[in-house]
Design brief:
Elements (H helix, E strand, L loop, with lengths): L1 H6 L4 E7 L4 E8 L2 H17 L6 E6 L5
Antiparallel strand pairs: 1-2, 1-3
């Protein structure tokens, strides 16, 4: 099902930006924004554990990361 959503550009993606180090991370696809929101908490915790600073989380529907 997630492959179909992704192919139709209906799946959700997480984009996480960090200021220090300056990086952009993409995670997904997810069937709904609620799944992405839940999953992002773990990704943010991991980045905080690595002392990343200036963490910003964005959610995108479709393949906006291409």
């Amino acid at each position: 099902m997630i492959d179909t959503l992704n192919a139709c550009r209906q799946a959700w993606w997480i984009e996480i930006l960090t200021a220090q180090p300056k990086c952009t991370y993409y995670f997904g696809p997810f069937a709904g924004v609620w799944e992405a929101e839940v999953a992002s908490k773990g990704f943010v915790e991991d980045l905080e554990g690595e002392f990343a600073q200036g963490i910003k989380v964005l959610y995108h529907r479709g393949n906006n990361h291409d």
